[in-house]
Structures are given as C-alpha cells and as structure tokens.
C-alpha cells in the first residue's frame, strides 16, 4: 500500500480502479504559411466551433451544477471573443506568416503568463482558463478529437490537471472520483467537483502521477485528501465504513427530499434554514429547505471595513431573494454588539455586553444605519417573498418606534417612485423573557414571532453563553424556557400571527413533538439539519 | 471626452463575471471608446481579459473614460453598472 496526500475538495469516499486521463497531444509546430488570409479564416472557423461547443457544455453544466457554476463557460465564450486575444492571434499569423495553431499557442502563453504574474490567487488561477480555451481552439484547428473515457467500468480519473470544460465533459456515470496532481482549490474544476458531488482531491503531487498506472486499485478519501494505492485490508474496511455512512446520509436525503413536513396525523409545518451569508444558499437548496427562516445580515457588516452602503446591501438581499425563487426569506436586521463586534461602529467596552448596547438598541439610537438597511430591504422586496425580523425586542414602545421607521422608509421610497412590495411580513425575535411575557401585546403588532432560544436561554436562566464554567447549569430543556415559548405561541395564534423557532433548540429533535403540540408553525435550522427534522416530524402522531 | 471615478463594490473585485458583463455592455457601443484607469494601468473596457489584468479588487478606485458617440450616456451606463456591483 502506498499513501499520497493531496487536498480534498469534496468530502466523499470512493474505491475503484485508476484511469489516467491523457490529454490530447497539443504540441504545436511552427509552420510557414504563405496564404495568411486562409489561416485567419481557419482560425475564425475554429473559434465559431469552439463557441458552439462551449454553449453545449454550458447547457450541460446548467443542468448538472447550476447557473452560478455554469457561468464560467459563458465567460469562456466571451474570452474567445476578446478583442486583444483575437488581435494578437491575427497579428502573429500576418506578421510572422505562420499557422493558426502556432499563433494561438503563442498568444495563449503570453496571456497565461500575464495572469500568472498578477499578485492575486484568483487572477493567477485564470491562466488555466486561457489555456483551456486555447487548447480547444488548437484541437479544433488540428482536428484532434477530445478523448472520452471508453471503459465500461466506473473509474477514478487521475490527471495532471483538469480544465473546467474537461471536468464537465466527463461522463458522470463513469466517474467514481477525480484526483489531480496540480490545481488550486480556487480553480473552477474544484468548484465544479463540489457541485457534482464527486469525491475529488487536488494537488496530489507529481510523485503520485508518475507512480500510478491504469488499473491500479485505489481509495480516494475526499474528506482527508488521502489517496491509498493498492490499499491493505484495514484501510479498505475503514473506507467502506465511511462509504456506508455517506450512503446512509444520501439515502435519508433522497427519501426525504421533496416530501412534506407533515405528521402522521396530517399536521403540516414549515422547516426552513438559518444562514449567515449568500454563499450558504446552495446548502439551503441542496437540503430542500422550504425557505430561509433566519438570514443573519451581520455578515455584510462584519466583512466590511466601513458601513455597507444601501446599494451593497440591496445587491446581497436581491441575490438571496432571487435565488430562493419565491420561497420565504426572513432577513434579520443588524444584530451586532455582545459577542459580535465590528470595529468601525466604535462600540465601547462594556461590563455586561449581553445586557448592553446591541442589536435593535443600536438601530434605534442610530437610525441612519437602521434606515439604510431598511431601504435596501424594501427595495429588494420586489424580487421575492421577504420577511423582516427585528432582534432583541423587550417592549411595545420599541416596536412602535420600529414600525414608525418602517412606514417612514416606505413613504420615502414612494415619494421617490422606488418600487417595493406591500406584502413584506414583519416579525420580531422572542429572545428576551420580557418579550415572551408581553407577547399578548406584541402579537397584534406583527405578522410573526421567531423564538431565538439561545439568547432566551441565557437571559431566562441568567447563564452567560460564553462562560464554559457554568455549562452544567444551562439546562436547555428548562421548564421556564418551554413555558415562555408556549405562552408566546398561544398569544401569537390568538392574534393571528404565526410563530417559529430559529435557535439551536429548533434542531433538537427530542423536542420536536413538544413544539408541535405547542402549535409551533415553523422550525428554522442549519441547512444540514433540515432533512433530519423533516424525518422526525414525519414520524410524530399528534392524535395519540 | 468625459470621465467619472467609481469604486468597485463587488466582494471578489472585478473577477470574470463582472468583467464579462462590462465588456458585453461596452461592445454594444462600438462608436464610443471606453477605457479604465485603475491601479496605475489603463485598459480597454471591451476586452474582459484586459479588464481582469488590471486586478481591480473591492474598494479599488476606477476612472472610467468615454470618448465618442453618446459618450455621456455610455459613461452613465457603465458607472451605474459599477455602482450596482454588476448585479451581484
């Protein structure tokens, strides 16, 4: 057995035979040509064909890995149409009286070098894109056909590197995994692998590539980045164990995907997902969440070195709403302070930050920040099904102020003839005991409640979330907390509002039945828990 | 000739997608030459690879220069694209 180490870009395990992916020979000879016009025509034809091929790959990728990841092939088409790139090729043909293949190869080298020289990992990785489109042109010019994996058996594809177009063009039904000797985790190949759900390892090294041969037995562990060639029994058994666990997860996913969140006796609830950034939307959709129950808007502030502009926020919210295509998206307004600090807010150091200047308290004392966010939210509201949620509410007067500011923002937008949706639901977090206790007064003012069990627990039990020494005193199932939730649920329903839970407790399946009996309408959990909660809901019978 | 200074707002800077969008928009106005001054470089805005070569990251200041037919309208359109983060 020999072990090689690379970097896993998609966590899954595969066992099977190695198949070396050999690139078509793209060695290009310099040939003197007298009829340069004919060469230019050949180049134009190869380019037209390349754009057509890329369109086909784009269509395939669109179905298999989604629009965001397929976009690369649209951009490759644009790169082929790049004026500089084209001028360079035509100039070389003309001025040096050479064949088109050679002109493309030289141009590719120049452009790839230009990208490789930029001091930025993203731009450096673009050299591979230039080579990819150029090789396609050269193949089209010289008529060599791109190779297919013709073996019947599923194999582990091993290559020096794989171009994005090669990755997508691979017949997924014949690929167990892929391993490349080079490549960066920033490359589109790595990104595509993740979206194709195929175990993948990059950067396994030249030694790996030179030592393996076609037909070698191997285990690819995308979790750890390890490749075992000719594995021993023990390694094999471990790999099988991991595969079984994966299969089990997949089975659960397949079985529960597309199913309703309904109990045995027919009670339906919504299971939504909690996310903290635009990049998590993929996970939301993959796990089949019915919507987003908590979108933490803090990331916009935490990732910035200054207050995010209305436009910046608008773009992010619009993207989420559009990606969710009409499904509910509940965005929580700024919740910083306490354990989440942002330098440019210049917040003072506090003795008791959890009880201090945070969340809605900042928003109400600095309405400029709050209004910027609300304007961005309302403007984005026309692109989907938006709910806005306010954190850390303790009183009716706070909520009155908030609603007045919302009306103000809407009136301003109307006056400026800026579109917004009239159907935006407004809700509050129930995360202070005060809010739960006066929930009968708060419920008539809003469309929904969402219980933040983490803060509700810390405030109700007077236990600091950050202090590990008191963990033994934190009973998350404490009757006081459950009573507060039940009280809030009753009051919400009495006044026509719905109620969800978006804290940690929502994914605690030992409480799912309790919550359903209280009448909770929605549970919002981290994307990976959506199907687990769905499974639990479907096993409960409330009539018993 | 008209010009305007804008700031890159895209999280990942002027990467492939926005560069492609920009080039596409500029090419729609063949009679107006659009160049960008950023990071001490001047690049043609109709060529996505040149745009990327200027390595404009988030927060980078870019001067858009338009010269030719409908230069003011083209300038406004391109500036708006930058400001809106190219729809991202």
What does the model show?
The complex is a heterodimer of chains A (544) and B (88). By secondary structure, chain A is of the alpha/beta class. Chain A has two domains: 24-142, Enzyme I, Chain A, domain 2 (Orthogonal Bundle), CATH 1.10.274; 259-539, Phosphoenolpyruvate-binding domains (TIM Barrel). Helices cover 47% and strands 15% of the residues of chain A. In chain A, the strands form two sheets. Chain A has an eight-stranded mixed sheet with strand order 1-8-7-3-4-5-6-2. Chain A starts with a strand and ends in a 5-residue tail after the last helix. Residues 145-149 of chain A have low confidence and may be disordered. Chain B has helices at residues 16-27, 48-53, 71-83, and strands at 2-7, 32-38, 41-44, 61-68. The longest helix of chain B has 13 residues, at 71-83. Chain B is globular. Chain B has a single domain, classed as Histidine-containing Protein, Chain: A (2-Layer Sandwich), CATH 3.30.1340.10. The mean pLDDT of chain B is 89. The relative contact order of chain B is 0.32. Chain B contains three helices and four strands. The A-B interface holds A 71-72, 74-75, 78-79, 82-85, 111, 114-115, 118-120, 122-123, 126, 129-130, 303, 305, 309, 311-312, 315, 319 and B 9, 11-13, 15-17, 20, 23-24, 44, 46-50, 52-53, 55, 57, 59, 83-85, 87-88.
Features:
A: 544 residues, Enzyme I, Chain A, domain 2, TIM Barrel, eight-stranded parallel beta barrel, 21 helices, B: 88 residues, Histidine-containing Protein, Chain: A
In brief:
Chain A is α/β, with parallel strands linked by helices and about 550 residues long. Chain A has helices at about 35-65, 65-80, 85-95, 100-115, 120-140, 165-170, 190-195, 205-210, 235-255, 280-285, 300, 310-325, 360-365, 365-380, 395-415, 435, 440, 455-460, 480-495, 510-520, 530-540; strands spanning about 1-5, 5-10, 15-20, 155-160, 175-180, 200, 215-220, 225-230, 270-275, 290-295, 330, 385-390, 425-430, 450, 500, 520-525. Chain A has two domains: about 25-140, PtsI, HPr-binding domain (Enzyme I, Chain A, domain 2), CATH 1.10.274; about 260-540, Alpha-Beta Barrel (TIM Barrel), CATH 3.20.20.60.
